[in-house]
């Protein structure tokens, strides 16, 4: 799964730590999601979308191999 999390964070001028606090996870979790090492749960993806005020599909995209 590809994601635009880093871009969305930059658009809102949020650090990984600030985003992590807003959604209740560690900064390391945000880093792992951004780098593609971890795929977030549906609940976590929805929380992130809510923070950014965007649909989930604008932040997370399926790849052909998913």
What does this structure look like?
There is one protein chain. This protein has 66 residues and is mainly α. Helix content is 58%, strand content 6%. It has a two-stranded antiparallel sheet. α2 (16-23) packs across α3.
Shape: globular
C-alpha Rg (nearest Å): 11 Å
Q: List the uncertain runs.
A: none
Structural class: mainly alpha
Mean pLDDT, all residues: 96
Number of strands: 2
Distance between the termini: 6 Å
Spatial ordering of strands, largest sheet: 1-2
Instruction: Give helix and strand order, one letter per element, not per position.
Output: EHHHHHE
Strand content: 5-15%
Question: What is the overall number of helices?
Answer: 5
Largest sheet: 2 strands, antiparallel
User: What is the helical fraction, as a range of percent?
Assistant: 55-70%
Summarize the structure.
The protein has 66 residues and is mainly alpha-helical. The protein contains five helices and two strands.
Key features of this structure:
mainly alpha; globular
Describe the secondary-structure layout.
Layout lengths: L1 E2 L1 H7 L4 H8 L3 H8 L7 H11 L3 H4 E2 L5
Antiparallel strand pairs: 1-2
